[in-house]
TrEMBL record:
A GO cellular component annotation in the UniProt record: membrane
Membrane spanning stretches: 7-23, 43-61, 66-84, 96-116
Primary residence: membrane
Protein name: DoxX family protein
InterPro entries in the cross-refs: DoxX (IPR032808)
Native organism taxonomy: Bacteria, Pseudomonadati, Bacteroidota, Flavobacteriia, Flavobacteriales
Source organism (scientific name): Hanstruepera neustonica
Entry membrane topology: Multi-pass membrane protein
Length: 124
């Protein structure tokens, strides 16, 4: 079912990933705070931003969708774990928006990865 719905999911995840980059790459105080809390400031913030940029681009290229979804599941899975172990659900009084966004992105990426499972060469 590589339909308009699947494309919309890919676009939503890519937009979420790419729109957060301005916070990471401009050293926004909230982003710096988060990465300081998990001990990854500044290299983790920039490195994860680069991985998210790559994943967002790969999600938009038909032949590399599965790679982008796989990267997203990994990176966002790490973000969810950081929320659950070090940051907490609510960060800087955001009412849990970052955590909820991470969950939505994670589950949409799993759906995309499932939809493109036949494109994964080592699963053929």
């Amino acid at each position: 079912m590589k339909s308009k719905i699947t494309f919309a999911l890919r676009l939503i995840v890519a937009i979420i990933l790419i729109q957060t980059l301005r916070f990471k790459f401009t050293a926004h105080p909230d982003s710096v705070y988060i990465f300081e809390q998990v001990g990854l400031e500044p290299y983790g913030r920039i490195g994860i931003g680069i991985v998210e940029l790559i994943a967002g681009i790969l999600l938009l290229i038909p032949k590399t969708v599965w790679i982008g979804a796989f990267l997203t599941v990994g990176v966002i899975g790490g973000a969810i774990m950081m929320h659950l172990t070090k940051l907490g659900i609510e960060v800087n009084n955001d009412s849990g928006i970052l955590f909820i966004t991470a969950l939505v992105t994670f589950f949409l990426s799993l759906i995309i990865l499932y939809q493109y499972r036949k494109d994964i060469p080592f699963l053929k």
